[in-house]
């Protein structure tokens, strides 16, 4: 019954949200030949396994848009993770409570419907952790050692962050044991390294690049920065990123009541710390939940100690899921950017006239928009379009403003956060498209 409900939530209207930048990268990369895929991701920050699998998945003979197919692939991994967690990580005492909060997790629904590797990471991480814990209990158990090494290698080929966190945590705990632990740690690492030889140089350069880049920050106050990261992560994992304000407030109260009695195996806590520190150097606060999605089932397990906390969280989750399907209350507005609509606006109003697009939005990935535009390059355009993430744009020399369109309004909560953070610009909408004509 839980799988049926979860499948309905994961696969219904997979075209609901627009394609965003990282999803466009998935589609552009996965349709390439395998050798080209390896070259692309080697120069980026991703291992190749997910893109290889999506490549073959997209070739399956069923009629659907590429993004719908790729999002469905993520849904399949989410369902597979549910089966895996049910079999390996639940107990008879908390099984139905866990399945309740897991099936209705708005965080899982959000990221399980994206054309990204998040749910594949989740599945492999749960598998690697299970066998890693089994190896910690019995270091001489050869089957556990082999399964841990294999699942760890597959995880490294899927994404570096959860692999480094889980394998790093398990290896450290193995090394703290006496002779048996050292032998198990060395043997497991030898197998993983042998399997990962083709990608060793790539992962080392990627980690070095992430460390050299420094953490993503939105405020110079380090205490406030950490508070924002932790709060966003907790809200995402508990109430989801599409919850109304009152649901967020209720989730905070519920979390404070539950967290006092929360406990987790030390190896999972260490993996969580490593992953969190890595994620803060990898992405900004709004993308940390996606990178740490493999920790979601262990976090939700905190709410399964008592029936009333599981039921209360499930009720809040239903409201957040409803809001998701209504495309309301999104904390991360980047998932709502209507690049199709913006492209249509530019194409229709530029018909028959040389046009140019200028983007004044630092950090914004507009690749989905670029893929949908077919503007003829011209050194002397008659129409200049400026896409900005501020309330104003810079008029190109020799032009006059004709029209301005705004997309995706910020909520009252968003505007309050901007004021508290003293943002220099406090736009009313996420994007503004201004049409200029040359004089």
List strands and helices in order, with pairings.
Blueprint: H1 2-11, H2 21-30, H3 34-43, H4 49-58, H5 66-88, H6 95-103, H7 106-112, H8 118-137, H9 142-156, H10 160-176, H11 179-195, H12 200-213, H13 222-238, H14 245-259, H15 266-282, H16 288-291, H17 296-300, H18 307-325, H19 339-349, E1 355-360, H20 367-372, E2 383-388, E3 399-409, H21 412-420, E4 429-438
Parallel strand pairs: 1-2
Antiparallel strand pairs: 2-4, 3-4
Short description:
The protein is α+β, with helices and mostly antiparallel strands and 439 residues long.
Relevant terms:
439 residues; alpha+beta; 2 domains; 4 strands; globular
Radius of gyration: 23 Å
* Major β-sheet annotation: 4 strands, mixed
What's the arrangement of strands in the largest beta sheet? 1-2-4-3
Count of individual helical segments? 21
Structural class: alpha+beta
Distance between the termini: 65 Å
Question: Could you say which overall geometry the principal axes of the C-alpha atoms support?
Answer: globular
| Amount of beta strand | 5-15%
Number of domains: 2
> Could you tell me the mean pLDDT?
91
Low-confidence stretches: none
Order of helices and strands: HHHHHHHHHHHHHHHHHHHEHEEHE
In helices, the fraction of residues equals: 55-70%
């Amino acid at each position: 019954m839980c799988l049926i409900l979860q499948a309905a939530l994961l696969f219904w209207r997979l075209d609901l949200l627009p394609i965003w930048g990282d999803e466009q990268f998935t589609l552009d990369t996965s349709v390439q030949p395998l050798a080209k895929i390896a070259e692309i991701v080697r120069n980026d920050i991703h291992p190749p396994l997910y893109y290889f699998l999506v490549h073959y998945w997209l070739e399956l003979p069923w009629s659907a848009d590429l993004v719908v197919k790729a999002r469905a692939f993520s849904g399949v991994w989410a369902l597979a993770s549910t089966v895996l967690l049910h079999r390996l990580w639940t107990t008879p005492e908390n099984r139905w409570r866990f399945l309740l909060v897991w099936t209705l997790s708005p965080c899982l629904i959000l990221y399980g419907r994206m054309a990204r590797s998040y749910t594949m990471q989740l599945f492999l991480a749960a598998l690697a952790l299970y066998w890693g814990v089994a190896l910690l209990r019995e270091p001489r158990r050869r089957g556990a050692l082999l399964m841990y090494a294999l699942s760890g290698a597959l995880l490294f080929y899927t994404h570096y962050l959860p692999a480094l966190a889980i394998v790093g945590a398990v290896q450290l705990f193995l090394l703290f044991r006496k002779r048996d632990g050292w032998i198990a740690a060395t043997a497991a690492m030898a197998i993983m390294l042998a399997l990962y030889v083709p990608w060793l140089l790539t992962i080392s350069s990627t980690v070095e690049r992430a460390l050299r880049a420094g953490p993503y920050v939105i405020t110079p106050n380090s205490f406030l920065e950490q508070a924002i990261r932790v709060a966003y992560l907790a809200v995402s994992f508990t109430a989801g990123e599409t919850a109304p304000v009152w649901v967020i407030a209720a989730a905070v109260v519920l979390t404070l009541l539950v967290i006092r009695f929360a406990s987790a195996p030390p190896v999972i806590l260490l993996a969580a710390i490593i992953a969190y520190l890595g994620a803060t150097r990898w992405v900004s606060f709004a993308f940390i939940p996606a990178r740490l999605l493999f920790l979601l089932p262990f976090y939700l397990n905190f709410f399964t100690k008592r029936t009333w906390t599981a039921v209360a969280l499930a009720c809040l989750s239903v409201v957040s899921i409803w809001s998701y399907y209504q495309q309301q209350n999104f904390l991360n507005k980047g998932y709502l950017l209507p690049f199709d609509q913006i492209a249509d606006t530019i194409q229709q109003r530029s018909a028959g006239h040389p046009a140019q697009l200028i983007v004044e939005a630092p950090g914004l990935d507009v690749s989905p928009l670029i893929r949908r535009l077919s503007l003829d390059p011209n050194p002397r355009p008659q129409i200049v379009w400026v896409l900005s993430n501020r309330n104003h744009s810079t008029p190109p020399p020799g032009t006059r403003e004709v029209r301005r369109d705004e997309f995706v309004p910020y909520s009252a909560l968003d505007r309050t956060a901007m004021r508290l953070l003293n943002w220099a610009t406090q736009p009313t909408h996420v994007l503004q498209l201004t049409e200029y004509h040359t004089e």
